[in-house]
Task: structure prediction
Amino acid sequence: IPLAGVIGHPIAHSKSPRLHKHWLRRYGIPGDYVPLDVAEANLEEVVRALPKAGFVGANVTIPHKVNALSLADQVSDRATLIGAVNTLTFLEDGRILADNTDGYGFMSNLRQNAPSWDPKSGPALVFGAGGAARAVISALSDAQVPEILLANRTRPKAEALRDEFGARVTVIDWVRASECLGEAALVVNTTSLGMEGASEFRVPLDGLQKDSVVTDLVYAPLRTTLLQCAEEVGCVTVDGLGMLLHQGVPAFERWFGQRPEVDEATRAAVL
Ligand code: ATR
Result:
């Protein structure tokens, strides 16, 4: 039977096994999906061995997302642009394909849960300039969002992203970001603020407009303080779990030949 898995270190917290096992069951596909705890030094050896052990592909997560780029024979344009990989596919001829479906997952989640949001309708305000922000910014650029206002605690990291992703990105000061809330059609938190065990997201939200869409990549807790505050203002809010579910869609389809649904049953399966 075809196998797939998720490679990370640590890996116990990953929700991907539940997601893919749910889809395998749902579509009656014989196969399995397993967590693989692999230290950085062993990544290449493990990846090269997987096809011989019956694996058709693997997701890649922290700390391997950048290193996996160099193991692939072919890297998709979006993975090249993002500079990181989340999906490997092992072809029968031995070649390894690398892709990054995080930006796709981000956008599909918004399309599904905030269908009224028109990417072209106005600027997006993005908090954070780490790996997750790279996927979000490349997806927003692709979707023709007119301007991306980018705020990061460490401003030079935001400036580096602007230099890389181009004219649509405007860097703003972290402490002045709330002044831009009024013009933002979309507000995105890509930082770890608000995550269980991390500090709270404390940017004042006074200027937030009720016709803005607000989304958080943090999904533990599901209703972050940011989303709760946005809801109180009357905004459409989209939680981060949907991005995780949607990023798995292209991978599952490629590996197992069935395009899977993301719906309430899918959410329930991973919670
Ligand atoms: P990921 O891959 O999830 O994006 P990352 O690359 O480590 O993870 O990026 C973490 C992001 O959260 C960064 O934008 C980081 O800001 P800095 O670049 O200033 O470090 C942001 N972040 C983490 N802790 C933060 C905090 N206490 N206040 C503000 N931003 C924080």
